[in-house]
Design brief:
By secondary structure, this protein is mainly alpha-helical. The protein has a single domain, classed as Amino acid/polyamine transporter I (Up-down Bundle), CATH 1.20.1740.10. It contains 23 helices and no strands. It starts with 20 loop residues before the first helix and ends with a helix. 55% of the residues are buried. Its main location: membrane.
Length: 508
């Protein structure tokens, strides 16, 4: 245990060999408490389930198409390039600091403890809200599979009162089941996550094959700019459509959050991070392209309201459609477990360092299951409680979940910026860097790091930009255009308050 938190500027160790994971962890200041039960595929599955392109592309396609039309396809590779640079930086750090609570740990060791603490706090907020956002997606799937899942009323639309109520019920049930499985042990939760990944891959293959077999137009559809949102410039519409990809491509660091539960994490976690994002990019890009090529009509308003399901229903039988929806439901549940597990490990890591309230309880590991039960339950309770916002106002719930993505991107910058500053010091140093890289390697990695910082900052700015068309399309709530920036400000302010409170409590 390291009650004072991670050591600032700690020397980075070279990647370790299998069999000495606990010794490496001890050199980083911690003893082995979590159980190392995860292999390479389970580590990959954690990140792939978090991104969950089958679920998120289904959900976010209308956002991209509504603003950019078919041309919004090009935002997908643009965002990928930036996020892949971030993933490479994270993979590099995961190889040398294989510790739970990755974002918090990396930022703390690269900069100062207060910056690292804020990075952990923002990551925790972003992940908790993400648990709610992914769990409530069950309302868009389960009632379509079987009417019995519509427990309240008959209209499953989340914008209606009964739809919102039922969404809270299904979301709460999903989070409850996820919490129970996560508390049962990382091996059990990993088994469910891996099963979900297999189901998602099968669903993606089936979906992509179906879309391309029913293609009505060629790749040139991606150059069509005639269906961009009217009333705004083409560049503004393109940037707004980029939010779809920005909202999807994050969470690939989940493999690093499970480093203390993975065999040979210095080798496994970096590969899992890179492979997760690569596969997500390819799969998501094929789904987007296939949907554009197979859509019955590019002028249909249902592409901007329903998206991918509209195209599926137009070209498949009920059996095929239900099979695809079933795989999406499994993916949603798998993603809920993956995100909740990542959030609980961030909370556990901060609690273990004694830097948050109730740290002694939240850092406790169950001797029977080898998991931080209190931290897992705490994340589940907060996520379920947050679902109540959807019952009161589904548009507000959507605004908060979108804003939480911006909070997470800010946390990522609190890792990539300090890392870039460190690299600048290493480039000027005549001796070998703490990472042990040669000069050529330093320059290449610094270039990738610079790209990660610039792209991350631009993506964050794009997320926070006050747009009436995005946050107040009806013109009824003009104050909502500032909501993402306000949410980030509140998250930062609350973090400073909690941090100061904990410091005062520790000093007394």
């Amino acid at each position: 245990m390291n009650p004072s938190g991670p050591t600032v500027g700690a020397t980075f160790q070279a990647p370790i060999c299998p069999g000495v994971d606990s010794e490496q962890l001890a050199r980083l200041g911690y003893r082995q408490e979590l159980r190392r039960d995860l292999g390479p595929f389970a580590s990959f599955a954690a990140g792939f389930s978090f991104v969950s392109v089958l679920t998120t592309v289904f959900e976010m396609f209308p956002v991209g198409y509504a603003f950019g039309g078919p041309a919004f396809f090009w935002t997908w590779p643009l965002v990928f390039v930036g996020q892949f640079c971030v993933a490479l930086c994270f993979a590099e750090l995961a190889a040398h600091i294989p510790v739970a609570g990755a974002i918090y740990q990396w930022s703390s060791r690269l900069s100062v403890r207060d910056v690292g603490w804020i990075a952990g706090w923002l990551t925790l907020i972003g992940y908790i809200v993400s648990v709610s956002a992914i769990a409530i997606a069950m309302q868009s799937i389960l009632p379509s599979l079987w009417s019995g899942f519509q427990v309240i009323g008959a209209n499953p639309d989340v914008t209606t009162l009964t739809g919102a109520e039922n969404a809270v019920i299904l979301g709460t049930a999903t989070i409850l089941a996820s919490t129970l499985i996560s508390c049962a042990g990382v091996r059990i939760s990993a088994f469910v996550t891996v099963a979900g990944v297999y189901a998602e891959i099968v669903g993606l293959c089936l979906l992509v094959a179906t879309l391309f077999l029913h293609a009505q137009r060629g790749f040139a559809v991606t150059l069509d700019t005639t269906h961009m949102a009217p009333g705004i410039s083409g560049s503004a519409a393109f940037l707004a459509s980029m939010l779809m990809a920005v909202y999807v491509m994050y969470g690939f660091d989940s493999a690093a959050e499970l480093s203390e539960e993975t065999h040979n994490p210095a080798r496994t976690a970096p590969r899992a991070i890179v492979r997760c994002l690569l596969l997500s990019f390819v799969a998501g890009g094929l789904v987007i392209l296939g949907t554009l090529m197979a859509a019955p009509s590019l002028s249909s308003g249902e592409l901007t309201t329903i998206g991918v399901p509209y195209v599926i229903n137009a070209m498949t039988s009920g059996v095929t459609g239900h099979l695809l929806l079933a795989t999406v439901a499994v993916s949603v549940f798998s993603a809920t477990i993956a995100i909740q597990t990542s959030a609980s490990r961030v909370l556990f890591s901060m609690a273990r360092d004694g830097v948050i309230p109730a740290c002694s309880a939240l850092a406790r590991i169950s001797q029977r299951t080898g998991t931080p039960v209190a931290a897992t339950v705490f994340v589940g309770v907060l996520s379920a409680a947050f679902l109540g916002v959807n019952y009161g106002d589904s548009s507000l719930f959507g605004a908060i979940t979108s804003s939480a993505v911006g909070v997470t991107y800010f946390a990522y910058l609190l890792v990539t910026v300090p890392l870039l500053l460190r690299r600048w010091q290493w480039l000027k140093s005549p001796g070998p860097s703490p990472f042990g890289f040669e000069t050529k390697g330093r320059i290449r990695r610094a270039t990738v790091n610079l790209c990660a910082v610039v792209c991350g900052a631009l993506f964050l700015l794009n997320t926070l930009w006050p747009r009436k068309e995005v946050f107040d399309p009806g013109g009824e709530r003009p104050y909502m255009v500032a909501f993402p920036a306000a949410f980030l400000t509140i998250a930062l302010a609350s973090g400073f308050i909690v941090r100061k409170f904990q410091k005062t409590k520790s000093a007394s």
